[in-house]
Amino acid sequence: MITEEFVSLVFSRLKTLECGLFLLQTGGVGFSQLQLYNRILKETMDTLANEQDFAAVAKQFTAGLQQVLPVTSLIFLVPWEDGTWLKLSPQNMFHGEIVKETPCAALFSATGSGWQKVFGSDCTIATTAMARERGLDVSDMGPSVLTRLESMVDDNMEALLVIGTSDTQVVTDDLQTVMNRLSTPLSVALDRELVRRRLESERDQIFERSIRDSLTGLYTRRYMDDVVSRLVGASERESIPGMALLMFDVDHFKRVNDTWGHPVGDDVLRMLAGVMLKTSRESDIPVRYGGEEFAFFLITDQEDVAVKAAERIRKVLSDHVFEIEGSEFHVTASVGIALHKNGSDLPDLIRRADKALYEAKETGRDKVCVFKEAEEPVELGQV
């Protein structure tokens, strides 16, 4: 019990505490509502302490917020790479997606002055109505509450919490107090998520560089030996499509290097690799096998599909006009095809495709030959 003369003093001291929310019945908000605000803060803090996953914190926050606001949507927006935005929302389970545009772009800047310019340095929570009054085009957004989140580890990083609501009039002083207190744990959770994502991105980039040929962008033989070997084995154990190997070799490539120089030779290899990348499906695996030789693994057990793919690439290369120092020249490639058969492994598939390639070379080049078991490779195309 607190005697009447000490009530004012006790509440004034409670206002200065940083350990939680003070309970004051102001603006028509009762103790039960303030206790609810306090519980939302506590549950969010507990989740932050016990969960490393940002989605868990965001879901807990959303569940709590829905008890005090008519929430229709909830989005975290973070400036990302190359002018894009990282968007975390219930629609993507708070796992995030990269978007190219957002009507909130004007609120972001490298120094944080975007928000200050629109709402002022003292404002930490705003609404779309306030943004519209200040000349910001938010016509693509419904009624929303906007909260700026500042990074705890990067002074130049900020994020925006966009809370869609059917009634922005519920943004009371008490709710602003709650949001101000919640902004710190939400910022910490978001910081952790961004650090994790950047570490994963750097790791993925390092891995990608290790499996990609630096000149052509195709996969390396190391990747082929690992991944394709397992795919060849899996095609026998599981009900997945078969595999065809298209082995390409640039005709008279040494002549290109000797005549025009190695930089031009590199251009030829990049051009052929570019055609492979452009025409390949997500399931296909184009590999720089070595030098001017390329291995294109096509997920199909149909010979005609493999032949059409090989002919398409071969023809694009042979039709292409290379220009250097006012001179023009053409480059062709020979192709050998082999289809995977039960009981064979990757070395055997390569051996048979090599035989077909050798036949294409020996019978005139700029053509496609298919390896036929117990027969000579069969020529299918020639210019």
Give me a quick take on this structure.
With 383 residues, the chain is α+β, with helices and mostly antiparallel strands. It has 2 domains: 18-206, GAF domain (Beta-Lactamase), CATH 3.30.450; 221-382, Alpha-Beta Plaits (2-Layer Sandwich).
Q: Would you write up a description of this structure?
A:
This protein is α+β, with helices and mostly antiparallel strands. It contains eleven helices and 14 strands. The protein folds into two domains: 18-206, Beta-Lactamase (2-Layer Sandwich), CATH 3.30.450; 221-382, Reverse transcriptase/Diguanylate cyclase domain (Alpha-Beta Plaits, 2-Layer Sandwich), CATH 3.30.70. The chain has helices at 4-14, 31-50, 54-65, 113-119, 128-133, 173-211, 221-237, 253-260, 262-279, 303-319, 346-362; strands at residues 71-79, 85-88, 97-99, 125-127, 144-150, 158-165, 244-250, 285-290, 293-298, 322-324, 327-329, 333-339, 367-370, 378-382. The strands form three sheets. The protein has a six-stranded antiparallel sheet. It has a six-stranded mixed sheet with strand order 8-9-7-12-13-14, with helices on both faces. A two-stranded antiparallel sheet has the order 10-11. A hairpin with a 2-residue loop joins strand 10 (322-324) and strand 11. Helix 2 (31-50) runs parallel beside helix 6 (173-211). The longest helix has 39 residues, at 173-211. It is elongated, with a radius of gyration of 32 Å. The N and C termini lie far apart (100 Å).
